[in-house]
Amino acid sequence: MKLLFLRKNLMVAMLAVSTLLFACKASDSKIQEAAQAKTTAIDPGVTVAVNEGVATLTGQVDDQTTQDALANAVKDVKGVKSVVNNTTVASPDVQVNPDDQIRAAIEENFLEAGVRGVDFTVASGVVTLTGEVSRNDLTKVMQAANEAKPKKINNQLKITN
Q1: What is the pLDDT of residues 22-61, one digit of tens each?
Q2: What is the pTM of this model?
Q3: CA 142 to CA 53: how far, in whole Å?
Q4: Domain total for the chain?
Q5: Among 15, 83, 105, 108, which residue's beta carbon has the most beta carbons within 10 A?
Q6: Is residue 20 part of a domain?
Q7: Are 84 and 35 part of one and the same domain?
Q8: Boundaries of domain holding 43
């Protein structure tokens, strides 16, 4: 009888302990809520989904530093077992230098027009022409440079007959 009583008490105790442990375990929704709060503070465009303690981050961030900070912040949330960082780093906007566009256009125009012996520089949209050119080819050179649509052409060419 004593053995039966001990078994019952032991079973009741084990059941109580397992219930307490289960009740203390954070649910995925509570983990997600805490993780989302941390990520929103860093980047509001990132979302968090949690499944069985695995937090998955999605969205686009500005740089690698932000991406790393998000993962580290979520790792610190109680109940998170691991983090899958599916965020992507946005590509920087590539801005083409207008001087580079003008330079490329003039090079192409000079090549097509057969212009030789003329050098040029481009700075802030202003083209400076240097070198020697025959009087007959001057119009061809100026036209080729103007077709690139610079702000101004500074003609420092030496004209030969």
Answers
A1: 544 579 999 999 999 999 999 999 999 999 999 999 999 9
A2: 0.47
A3: 70
A4: 2
A5: 83
A6: no
A7: yes
A8: 26-89
